[in-house]
Design brief:
Shape of chain A: globular
Radius of gyration of chain A: 25 Å
Helix content of chain A: 25-40%
Largest interface: A-B, 75 and 75 residues
Oligomer: homodimer
Strand order of the largest sheet of chain A: 3-2-4-1-10-9-11-15
Largest sheet of chain A: 8 strands, antiparallel
Number of helices of chain A: 18
C-alpha cells in the first residue's frame, strides 16, 4: 500500500505533490509527508492523519522548491504517527526516502546498522533502507545510484522507492519490485507516482517502471537500468485516462458515484463484445486462448477480497455453463502451498488494480508450474495484466472509493462472458440459452438502473439499523458469494462486524448469534433455492432475528414473514448476483454515512494492496 | 433436529421418557413435552424451555402410565413456546404425534384441512401432519397404521414420528424418512428414540428403522413394513455403547470433559491402525477401496460446520502428501448445484453424527452421478456410514456437548491417516517422511496432554476477554481452518461474534474492524508461513488491536510483540491443527463459562442437524 509522488522540473513542487497525494489517498491515509529541496537544504514535513492534515500543518510556511516528493502511508511496521510517517532521513540527514512496500529482512539490516552506530528515529522498515543506502555510499565512496542498486540487491521484500539527496537538486532516483511506479515525462520536467492519476494533468506520456529496474533522473535526463546495471530503453506510452473520470461529479462520495455508475460500467464491460441480436460474443483478449480455456480440465481462480468473491460467483457460472470444475483460492494461501497444477489446467487471476501483491505472486507460481494464466483486471497496463498470457479488461473506469463496487459487477460481467464463450466453444450450452443470456445481459444495465431508483427506500432501512453492532448476510447458490460481498462492504466502511454465510450453514453454529438485536440480510430471490431460503428465514424468525430480505419484485410470501423487503427485478438465475449485490452496496453506504464514517477512506484500509 | 422418545411395556413411562429426553437434549432444547395414556385418557403436558423445566411443571401430578412418549424441540416452524412444543393433538384430541424433521408441503396440506374445518392450535408443520392422519382415518375408515402410511405418502420432507391413539394403550406407530429412529426390543417392552442413548440402560437389542419404513408395536409385537405396505423382517442388532460414556464423569460440562478426553480419543482414532515402529498403517474400512482413493483424479469433500473445517484441513494434507487436487464443499451448497463428478472422482463425506441431512443428501447426489463415496463418521451404524461405499470411523466415543471438540480432532486424525495411506500407495511420500509422520502421530496424544496442562493460563486470558463483543481469528495454511474452527467455537457457546480469516486476507477488508477494543487471535506457530504471519501481527498491532498468539514453545520474538502468548509443543507442520486447535477450544469454553452461558446446550443450536 502507500502512495508516492515525486517531481523535478520548473514548477512549484509542494502544491503539485500534495495534489498528487490526494489522488493517491485510496492507497493509504494514516499519515503523510513531503520532502522539499531548496536553498534551505533538504527538509521533511510530516504528520499523522490525512493529506489535508498535512496541508494545514504546512500552511503559511515558506516552501518554494522545484524538486520534491511526498508519501501517504498505510502502516505495515510501526503505528501511524508523525515519526513513522514518510519521508525518512538517512543518519546524516542528507538523504531522504519514500517507500511503498515491505522490507522483510529489515530487522537483520537494522541490527547491523545499529552496531555501526546508526540511530533510528522511527520503527519503520523504510528508514532502515535509507540508512543502509547511506552506509553503502559512505563505505564504498560510490555514487548514490550505485549505492541504491547495491542496497536493493541485499533487500528481501517488495518496494517502490524514490530517493533524494541534498547534494543534487536535479536528481531523483527511483526503483521498483512488486509495487507499482509510473514516471511521467514532460517538457523538461518529470513526475513519479504510484499510478498515473497525479500525472495526467501535466502529461500523458508515461513510462511504467518494471520490477528490478532503477530510474535515475538527473540534469533533465531519464536513464533506466536494471539492478545489475544493464541500461534499458524506457518505453514511453500514452495513458488514456481523463481527468473527469477521477473526480466526484456531484456525488457526496466516490463510492456513491461508483455505485450509480454501474449501469454504465456494466455496459462498458460488454461494449463491443456482445451483440445479442446476432448471437455474437467476442472477447478480443481471449481470442488466441479460447480453445485452451474451453478444453481445460480444471480452472483455478485466484484473487483477494472482493475479487475473490467475484471468483466464487464465477465458479458457479463456469461449472454450470461450461461444465469445467473450478476451484477458487485465496491468492495469499495459494502462493504459499505447493499447489497442484496439471497440464490443461487454467488459472484465472482477478484484481481491480492489477497490482495486488498476493495475486501477482500467485500468478508467478502458477506460471512456473506451466499453467496458462488469464487475467481479469480493471487497470490497463497494470502488473497483473502484463504478467498473464491472456485476459479481458473490465473497463469499469477508475475506481477511487476504497470499497469496491463497480469493479465487482464489471468483474462478474466479464467472467460471465468468459464462461459463456467457453461454453459456446465447448458445446455445453444450447443456442437458445446462449442467446437468452446475451439478451438478458444487454438488458441488465436498465435493471440495475431500476434497483438504483429504490435507493431512498434502502436509505430508510439503513437509518433503522444505523446503530446495529453486528449483521449477518445469508444466501444460497450464486447468492452466497453476494452475501459475503454484502457483509464485506458493511465491514469495510461502517466498521460493523458483518459476516456472510451460506444460508444452510447457519444452523451449524452461527445461529447461536441470533436474537432480537441481530439484523439478518437474506438474499431470497425467486430462484431454484428460494423455498430452502424461506425455511432458513423461518428458522431465524423463530429466534426473533430481524430480517431484511432482498426479494424478486412481485413476491408476496415474504412480505408477511420478514421485517423489511427490498425488491429487485427478475433476471435469469445465472445473472442474479449482478442485480442482488446492488442493494447491499447501497445499504452499506448509507449505514456508514449515517454513522459518520469516512466512506471513501475507511480506517486501516487501502485501495490496492501491494504488500503481502 | 429434535429428540424423540417413546415407551410401551410394564414400567412407569413418564420418568423413563423424561430421562431419555435429557439424554437427547443435545438435539434441541427450546421446549419439551410428554404424552401419557392411562385411564384418564390421552394427556399431553408441554413447556417452553429445557426438559428440567418440564419436569418441574410435572412435579406432584398424578402421571401413572405404562405407555407414553416425549419430545425435546429445536424449532423450525413457529417460535419456541408452550403451544408449539410437541406432542401435538389431532383435531378431536384422540391422536397425538411427536415429530423430528420438516414437512415441506405443510402449508398446502394445512389450507386443505382448514377448508375441511380443522382448527390448529400451533404454527407447527407437525400438528398439520397429525390432523392430516386423522382426516384420512375419518374419511376412509381405515386403521391408524393405514392412515399413517397414506398420509406419509403425501408428505414432502423429512421425518421421524411416533403416533399414539387414545383407542389403543398397547400401540405405538413410528416411521422415518431422513431423521433417525432406533427401536429397543426388551422383554415384553419396547423403546423408541432418536438414538440409542435413552435405551441402553434397559436393553442392548435394537432395530435401526430404515427410510420409508413404518413400525407398529401392538399387543407386545413389533411389525415393520414399508410405506407401500410390504412387510419386512426387522434386523435386531446389539448396540455397543456403555452408560458411563454418556455421563459427565466429574467435569462441569460435557464439553470440558470432551476437550480433556482428546489425548485418549485421538489415540482411539488410531488404535489398531498405526504402528509407527513397523511403518505400519492400515485402515480396515478402506482396504478394498484404497486403490480407488489413491488413483483418484480429484477428491471432493463435503461436510457442514466443524466437519467442513476438518475437510479444509484435509484439503491441505491430501494435496501436500498425495498430490490429488481436493475441493471442499458445503454439503448444503453442493447438493443444490449440478456438481461436476467425473470418472475416478472420489467424494469424502464427514459428519460426527452420521445423520446430517445436508451431507446425506449430498452423498445421494454424488452417488447418482457414479462417484465412489468415503465416509468419516463418529456414530457407528449411522445413516451416512451406511450410505457410503467405504470409510473409517473416528472412534471418538459419544460426543454430547453441542460444540464439537473431540470429534473434530478425531476427524482430522482419521483424514490424515487416509491421506497418508493414499500417499503411500501412490508413492508420493518418502518412506522417511511416512515413518516420521506415523511416529509423530503416535506421540501426539502426549503433546495434546501438555497443551491441556496449560488450561489455567488460558482461563486467565479468557477472564480478561470475558466481555469482548467481537473476536477475529487469523491463521495461514493449515492453521487457517483452525482459525475458522476457533471462531466457530466461540460463536456457538459464548454468542460473541467471532470470525475466522486467512491472515493475509485481513487487509482486503476486515482490518477496518481493528481498533483497541478488538481481540485478535493469531495462530502463529513456527512453520513455513511464520514470517508472513508475524508481518500480519504487526499490521494489527499498528492499529492497536489486542493480540493473543498461539505460538510454538520456546518462541521469543512474539513475546514482546503481542499481548498474550499461549505456547504449544512443536509438531510437524502437517499435524499442527491437531495441537493448535486445543487452546482455542479451551478459550471458547472458559469465555462462555465466565459469561454464564449454557455451554453444553447453547441457545438456538442442536447437536445433529437432521433438517436442511
Amino acid at each position: 500500500m502507500c502512495g508516492i509522488v515525486a517531481y523535478v522540473g520548473h514548477r512549484e513542487a509542494c502544491p503539485l505533490v500534495l495534489k498528487g497525494l490526494k489522488r493517491l489517498e485510496y492507497r493509504g491515509y494514516d499519515s503523510a509527508g513531503v520532502a522539499l529541496l531548496n536553498g534551505e537544504g533538504l527538509n521533511v514535513y510530516k504528520k499523522k492523519g490525512k493529506v489535508a492534515d498535512l496541508e494545514k500543518e504546512l500552511a503559511g510556511k515558506e516552501l518554494t522548491a522545484t524538486i520534491g516528493m511526498g508519501h501517504t502511508r498505510w502502516a505495515t511496521h510501526g503505528e501511524p504517527n508523525d515519526i513513522n510517517a514518510h519521508p525518512h532521513y538517512s543518519d546524516n540527514g542528507k538523504l531522504a526516502i519514500i517507500h511503498n512496500g515491505i522490507i522483510e529482512n529489515y530487522a537483520t539490516l537494522k541490527e547491523n546498522l545499529i552496531r555501526k552506530g546508526h540511530e533510528f528515529r522511527s520503527q519503520t522498515d523504510s528508514e532502515v533502507l535509507i540508512h543502509f543506502i547511506e552506509e553503502i555510499q559512505k563505505h564504498t565512496c560510490c555514487s548514490l545510484e550505485e549505492a541504491v542498486r547495491q542496497a536493493l540487491q541485499e533487500v528481501v521484500g517488495a518496494y517502490a522507492i524514490v530517493v533524494m539527496s541534498e547534494d543534487d537538486p536535479t536528481q531523483l532516483i527511483a526503483a521498483r519490485k512488486g509495487s507499482p511506479l509510473v514516471i511521467g515525462v514532460g517538457d523538461g520536467e518529470f513526475f513519479m507516482a504510484s499510478d498515473a492519476t497525479p500525472i495526467i494533468e501535466y502529461t500523458k506520456d508515461v513510462v511504467y517502471l518494471n520490477d528490478y529496474e532503477v530510474a535515475v533522473i538527473k540534469d533533465g535526463e531519464l536513464k533506466v537500468m536494471t539492478l545489475d546495471n544493464t541500461q534499458t530503453t524506457p518505453y514511453i506510452q500514452k495513458v488514456e485516462l481523463e481527468l473527469e473520470a477521477i473526480e466526484k461529479g456531484g456525488f457526496d462520495h466516490f463510492m456513491l458515484k461508483e455505485i450509480f455508475e454501474q449501469p454504465r460500467s456494466i455496459a462498458d464491460s460488454m461494449r463491443g463484445r456482445v451483440k445479442a441480436d446476432e448471437g455474437h460474443l467476442v472477447l478480443g483478449g481471449l481470442r488466441d486462448y479460447l480453445d485452451q480455456l474451453a478444453s481445460s480440465k480444471r480452472i483455478v481462480i485466484v484473487g483477494c477480497g472482493t475479487s475473490w468473491h467475484a471468483g466464487l460467483v464465477a465458479e458457479y457460472i463456469f461449472e454450470e455453463l461450461a461444465r469445467i470444475p473450478v476451484e477458487v483460492e485465496y491468492a495469499s494461501e495459494f502462493r504459499y502451498r505447493n499447489p497442484i497444477i496439471a497440464e490443461r489446467d487454467v488459472v484465472i487471476a482477478i484484481s481491480q488494480s492489477g497490482e495486488t501483491a498476493d495475486t501477482l505472486a500467485a500468478i508467478e507460481l502458477a506460471k512456473s508450474k506451466g499453467a496458462t494464466i488469464f487475467g481479469v483486471c480493471n487497470v490497463v497496463g497494470s502488473s497483473i495484466a502484463r504478467a498473464t498470457h491472456a485476459g479481458a479488461y473490465t473497463h469499469a473506469g477508475p475506481e477511487i472509493g476504497v470499497a469496491s463496487t463497480k469493479a465487482f459487477t464489471a468483474q462478474v460481467t466479464v467472467l460471465t462472458l468468459m464462461a459463456l464463450s467457453a461454453a459456446k466453444r465447448k458445446g455445453t450450452i444450447s443456442d437458445t440459452l446462449f442467446r437468452q443470456l446475451l439478451a438478458e445481459l444487454e438488458a441488465l444495465p436498465a435493471k440495475v438502473e431500476k434497483v438504483l431508483e429504490g435507493a431512498e427506500r434502502i436509505k430508510e432501512i439503513a437509518y433503522i439499523f444505523t446503530y446495529a453492532r453486528n449483521f449477518i448476510y445469508l444466501g444460497r447458490g450464486l447468492n452466497f458469494p453476494v452475501a459475503l460481498e454484502g457483509a464485506l462492504k458493511l465491514k469495510e466502511i461502517s466498521y460493523i462486524h458483518a459476516e456472510g454465510y451460506p444460508a444452510a450453514e447457519m444452523k451449524h453454529g452461527p445461529i447461536a448469534l441470533i436474537d432480537e438485536d441481530m439484523p439478518v440480510v437474506f438474499i431470497a430471490t425467486k430462484d431454484s433455492s428460494y423455498e430452502k431460503v424461506v425455511s432458513n428465514i423461518q428458522e431465524v424468525k423463530a429466534r426473533k432475528g430481524r430480517v431484511i430480505a432482498i426479494a424478486t419484485e412481485g413476491e408476496t410470501q415474504l412480505q408477511s414473514m420478514v421485517d423489511f423487503v427490498i425488491e429487485i427485478p427478475k433476471v435469469h438465475d445465472i445473472l442474479m448476483p449482478l442485480i442482488s449485490v446492488i442493494p447491499l452496496q447501497l445499504l452499506a453506504y448509507y449505514v456508514a454515512v449515517m454513522r459518520g464514517r469516512n466512506v471513501d477512506q475507511p480506517r486501516n484500509l487501502a485501495k490496492s494492496v501491494t504488500v503481502e
